[in-house]
Amino acid sequence: VPNIKLVLEYDGTAYHGWQRQTNAPSIQGTIEDKIRIITKKNVNLTGAGRTDAGVHAKAQTANFRTDARLTPAAWQKALNSLLPADIAVRNAQQVSEKFHARFSARSKVYEYSVLSRPDRSAVDRLFVWHVPFPLNMNAMKQAAAALIGRHDFTAFKGSKGDTKTDRCYLKRLTVRKLKEMIVITIEADRFLQHMVRNIVGTIIEVGRGKRKAQEMKQILKSLDRRLAGPTAPPQGLCLIEVRY
Amino acid sequence: VPNIKLVLEYDGTAYHGWQRQTNAPSIQGTIEDKIRIITKKNVNLTGAGRTDAGVHAKAQTANFRTDARLTPAAWQKALNSLLPADIAVRNAQQVSEKFHARFSARSKVYEYSVLSRPDRSAVDRLFVWHVPFPLNMNAMKQAAAALIGRHDFTAFKGSKGDTKTDRCYLKRLTVRKLKEMIVITIEADRFLQHMVRNIVGTIIEVGRGKRKAQEMKQILKSLDRRLAGPTAPPQGLCLIEVRY
Q1: What pTM does this model have?
Q2: Residue B133: which residues within 8 A CB-CB, separation 6 or more?
Q3: Which of B58, B122, B238 sits opposite A10 (nearest CB)?
Q4: B125 vs A86: CB contact, 8 Å cut-off?
Q5: Beta strands of A191-243 (E only): which ranges?
Q6: d(CA A115, CA B74)
Q7: R_g over Cα of chain A
Q8: Cβ–Cβ gap B89/A11 under 8 Å
Q9: What residues are paired with B227 via a beta bridge?
Q10: Which of B88, B123, B238 comes nearest A121 by C-beta?
Q11: Which residues contact B148 (CB under 8 A, 6 or more apart)?
Q12: Which residues contact B145 (CB under 8 A, 6 or more apart)?
């Protein structure tokens, strides 16, 4: 059965996250419904990352199996004409039988945007976390660097994160400033529930001077969620790349 | 009576433009209503530019007169707490009795964003015009340059534009590309109704090869709206600066 890989962009504002739910709109459910309109058959769309409610994607990937005889280009065109304006198919291609959007991924890259200025934003409000306090860039860069490598990230895991192992290989974690926007980029082979948002929440506390960059190693070693900072809000987060 | 100047940012998606209307939400009406909550008196908020429905602003300016004894900082804080999330006060200050947001302005600067790629966008959909055709940057730059200067812009004026004179001094009109985004920046001492959107619509036709850059001068001289291109959609437009 042909295996189709999609690259998806979406504005997550109106959805209760990626994962299909019974009583709330989801990205997965919305796309599955449109695929079903085309194939008249049930379908299971597997996403690389299960983004939370309000989280966005510029290049989420997903795959599904279908015996419908459409070319990948026809899939893209058909889905883009059926999908709502806040979900778009950036690319479609046929991939090997074995390809699995999540298990085949080598790493995923997220970007988290923090708007650093005293007053709130109107235009960017659904795509940034507004932090009205001064932030120390050097301290945040130091805090970020301390987390790079292969570690057990239990201390940065949400309470519902139900995983066999909490070890992740964090390949990249950078903090850069572009005018009023602070962009935190994070790449890892896998992510635990709320991991990016908990790391961002802790880095911002370091930036505000509420804790020291040196504490990051201790928090990591403690495996204790209570020692890390608060969970950053979802709207600043965007899945920007899945690497295979 | 103290004269207060506001610098405003807004996402125009949900509004029928700047100007107060009887039966539809407007930026002006929304802000006037909040000022009235504070002062308990009628107020008239004068904007520098009357943006159309769906048009955004990063730095619209406006002024109003009030005898309420609030400091400018208190005005900013009070309004930001009362206004909806899609309108923000970036700055408030007390200005001279004579200051008039529109008549005192020396020039206004607009940015128009065109997303140039085959497939549509989900995340940026409310802030760009998606043009799925290849665009010739050099031709567009040439077309833009032809309009700079002091001219009668009747050929680029909307049919409802009711003005005594259609002469404007177009100080700047640039077209630049940042990855998939083409940004057209335009500065003039005054703008006629739909002028930016009609200029952009015509430049894009040049970019697509539907007309030549050399035609711009002829269109301008014709004073005939029918010779110019279509009106670009509102959501790509943003008022970014008002100069005094």
Answers
A1: 0.94
A2: B208
A3: B122
A4: yes
A5: 237-243
A6: 22
A7: 19
A8: no
A9: none
A10: B88
A11: B170, B171, B172, B173
A12: B173
